[in-house]
Amino acid sequence: MALREKYRVAVDIGGTYVDAVCYNQESRKVHFSKSSTTPSNPVDGVMKALAGLDISFDEIDILVHGTTLGLNAILQRAGAKVGLITNVGFEDILEIGRAAVPPRYMYDFQYAPPPPLIPRRYRLGVPGRMNAEGVEVVPLDRDAVVAMGDKLVNTFSIDSIAVCFLHSYRNSIHELQAQEILQKAFPNVEVSVSSDISREYGEFERTMTTVLDAYIRPIMKSYLDEFQVRLREIGFVGRLQVMRSGGGAMDLTIADRAPLLTVLSGPAGGIAGARYLSHVQGWDKTITFDVGGTSLDTCVILNGEPGEVHEATIADLPVQIPVFDIRTIGAGGGSIARFDDGILRVGPESAGAVPGPVCYGQGGIHPTITDALLTLGFLNPDNFLGGKVQVFPKLASDAIRDDVGNNLNLDIQESAVRMIQILVAKTVGAVREITLERGLDPKEFLLVAFGGAGPVLAPLVGLEMGMNGVVVPALPGAFSALGMLMTDLEFDYSSTVLEVLVESSLVNLESVVEGLHQQAKTMFHSQGIFEGEYEVKVRYDLRYEGQEHSISVPVEHGDTAEALEERFGSMHFERFGHRMKEQCEVSSVRLKVISEVEKPEFIRLEKDSRTVTPRSKRRAYDFSDSMIKDFEIYLRDDLRFGAVIPGPAVIEESASATVFFSDQVAIVDEIGQIIIRNKKYES
Amino acid sequence: MTEDVLDGGTIEVVNSYLVSAAQQMRRTLIRTAFNPVIYAVLDFGISIYDSKIRLMAEAPGITSFVGANDAALPKVLNYVGVENLKEGDVVLLNYPYWNSAHAYDAMLFAPVFHESSESPSAFVAVRAHWMDLGAKDAGYVLDSTDMHQEGLIFPGTKIVKEGVIDNEIIELIRFNSRLPDLTIGDFHAQLACLRVGERQLHAIWEKFGLPKVERVVEELIDHGKRVAWRAVQSLPHGSWSAEDWLDDDGVTEDPILMRVTVTIDDDGMLVDYTGSSSAVPGPVNLPLGSTESMAKTAFKTLTTPTLSTNAGHYAPLRVYAPPGSLFHAQYPSATFTQWTTMAAFELIYKALASVMSEIPASSGSDEPGFMALGRDPRTAKDYVVSNNEGIGWGGTPHHDGASGQMHISLNIVQNTPIEVLENKAALFHLGLRLLPDSAGAGMHRGGLGIERHVQFIADGEVLSMKKKTQTKPWALNGGFEPITNSMTVWPNTDHPKQMRMRRASMKLGDEFINVSAGGGGWGDPLKRDPLRIVEDVLNGFVLRKSASEIYGIDVGIDGSFTENFRRAPGLPQE
Lengths: 683, 574
Known about the structure:
The structure holds two protein chains of two kinds.
Chain A: E1 7-13, E2 17-24, E3 29-36, H1 42-51, E4 60-66, H2 69-75, E5 82-87, H3 93-96, E6 123-126, E7 129-130, E8 136-138, H4 142-155, E9 160-163, H5 173-185, E10 190-193, H6 194-197, H7 203-233, E11 239-243, E12 249-251, H8 252-257, H9 265-281, E13 285-291, E14 296-302, E15 305-306, E16 308-309, E17 312-314, E18 317-319, E19 323-324, E20 327-330, E21 335-340, E22 343-350, H10 369-375, H11 393-408, H12 412-436, E23 446-450, H13 454-465, E24 469-472, H14 479-484, E25 489-500, H15 506-525, E26 535-544, E27 551-555, H16 561-576, E28 584-595, E29 616-622, E30 627-635, E31 644-646, E32 649-653, E33 656-660, E34 664-668, E35 674-678
Parallel strand pairs in A: 1-4, 4-11, 5-6, 5-9, 9-10, 13-23, 23-24, 30-32
Antiparallel strand pairs in A: 1-2, 2-3, 7-8, 11-12, 13-14, 14-15, 14-20, 16-19, 17-18, 21-22, 24-35, 25-28, 26-27, 26-28, 29-30, 31-34, 32-33, 34-35
Chain B: H1 8-32, H2 36-39, E1 44-50, E2 55-60, H3 68-80, E3 90-93, H4 96-99, E4 105-112, E5 122-129, E6 155-161, E7 164-165, H5 167-176, H6 180-208, H7 210-233, E8 238-246, E9 256-265, E10 268-272, H8 288-303, E11 317-320, H9 340-343, H10 347-352, E12 369-376, E13 381-387, H11 418-424, E14 427-434, E15 450-456, E16 460-465, E17 486-489, E18 497-499, E19 503-506, E20 511-515, H12 530-538, H13 544-549, E21 553-555, E22 561-563
Parallel strand pairs in B: 10-11
Antiparallel strand pairs in B: 1-2, 1-5, 3-4, 3-6, 4-5, 6-7, 8-9, 9-10, 12-13, 12-16, 14-15, 15-20, 16-19, 17-18, 17-20, 21-22
């Protein structure tokens, strides 16, 4: 990759905005542009955001793209018309699923799940069966594949076909045969096969994963085709990459094979950014705190490595793809306050993007967290999140008075304070649970805040939990897009093996690794990346016999079974508080291949001992002293390395604001990040 | 704003911390438990009580464990004596008649002391299913006839004294258990769970002060009472009864009568099991506390389904069962197989169905799973696997019942994937499907049951886990009854056998078919939207013949339809 053009660009389509971020590789400066999403034709909004960067597009080296298009299609159930081909006699696996009711409906005796994504008559079985060892018990009936394909395509007019067979994680030959037959017989129909996307066991989860891939495939394909055409029109000649859900970007050819891998790319951008910062800054324990209009997401990052899992849930549907272990712990700024017979409740109802908070004046009636933040003086009504949105503070305070204050006998300000306190109490509880799951204490963590409202709330949560500090990185309001510039080319391969961990099984495990390595090699070669230009990380998923959950253990060259068992044992102790005497088994082999990409190198700022002067003052509520005070208002652009700003104060910037209190102090570090700590620890 | 006024916002702030304390105990238990019955099947219940033994917050695993500790704690405190408790003590209880559970559900509780008081200011409690305490059979006991066949009993024993674990008791457990490491491991997990609860309570007291927390708890319980009373008062007043049958007690084949009378009046709701069978010899009897738990869960679904629970929510509920009856077992009645709580769960709904329009038809009776065990020739190791199977839920006034969904008494538990069963056990699936025509027909039909056809690929044993196969789940408002739970071993041979809750030895090549019940139908099938019937026929969920004969709709191959007798004069029009 000798080519070195001037710019690297990332563009991220979110629910409300498209963020485009540009890194100038010469000046090492970053700038960004925002535009509204254009649901009727999403490419328009993206092109507009790109145009807003005001650069010449032929000088772009790499453009990384993240999109919620696939996700939205699933959430709104607006995907393609899909047919499923599977084992005869097992056509209902997709509908039976795991039979469990989502926990939030635990006491609902009328609960019924939404209808299956594919009605029964479009789920067709063909003879052919592998057993658990991957040995063929019944050969694939090729004629039946053609006949069923014909029925789906010509009788039912489906748009795309999903293929998934039992035990295909062990032996995918029937799936590959069916794929070949279907592509040949029906060249105009998209086909998704499970073994291209997931090699994990669990027939329902793998079938659903394949079906969802087929569900979004036509949409993603036509979108990406149009995007490429439009990019060419404006002179773009660089490499277009797509952000993956588990961090890392990939070339379009890979996205084409399994578009589902991109489905959670938006939130992944922020985590990728926080991971990179953790590496660069040497932070060992961080928790991300991403607060947007509709959700509050967190992810634990230990020693620079975010938790990764191999299954996510979208609208209660499982997807077996590698993703960061992101936990949604609340509804974010849109959480609605409601009076419940003497008690004030906040959430789980959310005003969402539409109608949004009351202060947007778009029809919201019930006060939200955003309305409370505005009422308490934390947000600037004249320059709300960078001036993109006009807000009406009076509407917000009236709603708080009517819905909360009048019922609780509190004034507007106290009412807003209670709303925030409740949100903080719930958030603190949820964060404690997440760290406790790993046997850790949240006090040892740094909270990394981004998303428009992340920096507004994070110092308050950090104060409440006695955390090690709160970090507000550059461009918190477009951090997801920024994070996409900080990722490598990455890809994951895995294979379910289910093998007892003894010395004699290592040879077999290594041959599985070798097989995966060959796949990776082929994939990278096709992108012009050769051996030595990428790194390979091997992990085995280990567990004690009889357990269902496993732990992904890093494998080093020459590891003995004993060494692996010991490493697993100590990780098991860390995670679950005990070790067991049972035999270990390997459930999966995982290979991650990473081709490193040059990341934005932050300018190390010169120390500047001059005092920064605030631009103005605003009355706002100080949570340290429980009273209204004058907050000094700073502009982030005015801050230099070494600046020390005692709370209470607000630091405003485009698309976000950092709010901290009289117990706290903000310090600006050498790459321009704001670090907020308790004053006690900073003298 | 002075600190003395307690407003509704502050109440919720403290409440959030209390609920979070219970949730953190839950995470800790799941994280550190050794056996999958705890971390996957969620057989546990976690509760936090105030000094007056009133529930402040809880984190149940499955619904069967709602309020499970509530009945046990006062009884065990009475036995131990509150005055004998010291800081750091942990007490173990599994005596079924006090503990409101079978002997393998071990409850541990710890008193929590605030510096200002000599007596406990709170209690934290956790019960969880232990793998073995030396009952007559390994695994599950299906035919015990008194408590002493069901394992080692602890009546309320200090297993930790002022922070020091009593090793003699641990050794007693070790020598009485077939699986001592797992059992003692789970004891430690429960201990860790209690310690997290204690720490969180201390943190909450430190942050808000004990007096303020106590006042908040009063307010929360008052609020719970208000909400629950209001909900009960909005229910119809009167008295209604319902009956149903349990297959047998595992020892004889005689059906067992379950009867409930629900009375709602200005005094609240009384759930009375008078008229049910006397306690039976086999292990299906319920301690009163289990009966109360079951009634509490049903009551919660009817009154406060979305609120995190405190003692106030149950204020309007009273539960009665005559001592010595099926629903109020007394020493030494056998109580090991607690399937009665599942089969009886919907009785309260059944009683109320005639007057409450929101009640759905029956959701398939009980959880109809199976266990399989044997030696796997591929690994030369013994295996034990189990699967909880979904059932058809009842049709409701608003929609069809869910198909193949877990029974409400354990509705958040998952089934076991085929690919897991076939890897862990010498089993091979021949089919798994939603069974056509298994649902009760109706304007809103029941959900479909599941048919699972399995072959043993080595000698082994199968356990059919179901206690309601002989009588049908009920329908409502003119809907039809569905098929029942069943298991047939050796199907398609000249010697098929219907199983209830029994074991059968299987040889290589032997098969079984496990079928879960459909849901009861709601409303007259003739009033069903014809397009839904067409949809069901095209999807194969309702056979053409049934569509014609039961629904009065003849469906063509192309999805066209004609009505036959459904519009005949005298039949109600839509």
